[in-house]
Amino acid sequence: MMTMRATVLSTQRGRLLVFDQAMLQRVIVHARNACHFCVGDHVCIRYSGAMTMSIPPQITAISISRIPRFGPRRHLC
Protein backbone atom coordinates (compact mmCIF):
# COMPACT_ATOMS: atom_id res chain seq x y z
CA MET A 1 0.00 0.00 0.00
CA MET A 2 1.18 3.53 -0.83
CA THR A 3 0.39 6.87 0.79
CA MET A 4 0.09 10.25 -0.92
CA ARG A 5 -0.13 13.65 0.77
CA ALA A 6 -2.00 16.05 -1.47
CA THR A 7 -4.07 19.20 -1.72
CA VAL A 8 -7.54 19.04 -3.26
CA LEU A 9 -7.77 21.18 -6.41
CA SER A 10 -11.30 20.24 -7.50
CA THR A 11 -14.07 17.81 -6.68
CA GLN A 12 -16.48 15.95 -8.92
CA ARG A 13 -18.86 13.12 -8.31
CA GLY A 14 -16.73 10.08 -7.52
CA ARG A 15 -13.34 11.72 -8.02
CA LEU A 16 -10.94 14.41 -6.91
CA LEU A 17 -8.22 16.30 -8.71
CA VAL A 18 -5.35 16.71 -6.27
CA PHE A 19 -1.82 18.10 -6.25
CA ASP A 20 0.62 15.44 -5.01
CA GLN A 21 3.04 17.29 -2.72
CA ALA A 22 5.87 14.75 -3.08
CA MET A 23 5.85 14.31 -6.87
CA LEU A 24 4.71 17.89 -7.63
CA GLN A 25 2.05 16.76 -10.09
CA ARG A 26 -1.72 16.69 -10.47
CA VAL A 27 -3.42 13.32 -9.96
CA ILE A 28 -7.02 12.19 -10.46
CA VAL A 29 -8.21 10.16 -7.48
CA HIS A 30 -11.24 7.92 -7.90
CA ALA A 31 -13.06 7.69 -4.57
CA ARG A 32 -16.62 7.02 -3.49
CA ASN A 33 -16.41 9.63 -0.73
CA ALA A 34 -14.99 12.41 -2.95
CA CYS A 35 -17.95 14.67 -2.13
CA HIS A 36 -16.81 14.84 1.51
CA PHE A 37 -13.79 16.98 0.62
CA CYS A 38 -13.43 20.63 -0.41
CA VAL A 39 -11.02 22.58 -2.57
CA GLY A 40 -7.97 23.44 -0.45
CA ASP A 41 -8.27 20.45 1.90
CA HIS A 42 -5.00 18.72 2.70
CA VAL A 43 -5.54 14.97 2.50
CA CYS A 44 -3.77 11.69 3.06
CA ILE A 45 -4.65 9.15 0.36
CA ARG A 46 -3.96 5.44 0.71
CA TYR A 47 -3.95 3.45 -2.53
CA SER A 48 -2.61 0.18 -3.91
CA GLY A 49 0.38 1.75 -5.65
CA ALA A 50 -1.11 1.26 -9.11
CA MET A 51 -1.14 4.50 -11.13
CA THR A 52 -2.07 4.98 -14.77
CA MET A 53 0.44 6.46 -17.21
CA SER A 54 -2.16 8.97 -18.43
CA ILE A 55 -1.85 12.73 -18.08
CA PRO A 56 -2.75 13.43 -15.38
CA PRO A 57 -2.11 10.04 -13.79
CA GLN A 58 -5.03 8.34 -12.03
CA ILE A 59 -5.32 6.24 -8.89
CA THR A 60 -8.15 4.59 -6.98
CA ALA A 61 -8.24 5.45 -3.29
CA ILE A 62 -8.52 2.78 -0.62
CA SER A 63 -9.08 5.54 1.94
CA ILE A 64 -8.80 9.31 2.16
CA SER A 65 -8.52 11.34 5.34
CA ARG A 66 -8.32 15.06 5.90
CA ILE A 67 -5.07 16.29 7.45
CA PRO A 68 -5.56 19.06 10.02
CA ARG A 69 -3.55 22.15 9.08
CA PHE A 70 -2.64 23.08 12.66
CA GLY A 71 -2.33 21.36 15.99
CA PRO A 72 -0.66 18.18 17.21
CA ARG A 73 -1.96 15.96 14.37
CA ARG A 74 -0.61 18.05 11.46
CA HIS A 75 2.14 15.54 10.61
CA LEU A 76 -0.14 12.50 10.30
CA CYS A 77 -0.17 10.69 7.00
What does this structure look like?
With 77 residues, this protein is mainly β. The chain has a single domain (2-66), classed as Nucleic acid-binding proteins (OB fold (Dihydrolipoamide Acetyltransferase, E2P)). It contains no helices and five strands. Strands 1-2-3-5-4 form a five-stranded mixed beta barrel. β2 and β3 (25-30) form a beta hairpin. The mean pLDDT is 92.
Q: Provide the succession of SSEs.
A: EEEEE
Number of distinct helices: 0
CATH architecture group name:
Beta Barrel
* Gyration radius, rounded: 11 Å
CATH topology: OB fold (Dihydrolipoamide Acetyltransferase, E2P)
Q: What is the CATH class?
A: Mainly Beta
Number of strands: 5
What brief labels describe this structure?
single chain; 77 residues; mainly beta; OB fold (Dihydrolipoamide Acetyltransferase, E2P); five-stranded mixed β-barrel
Spell out the blueprint of helices and strands.
Blueprint: E1 2-12, E2 15-20, E3 25-30, E4 42-47, E5 58-66
Parallel strand pairs: 3-5
Antiparallel strand pairs: 1-2, 1-4, 2-3, 4-5
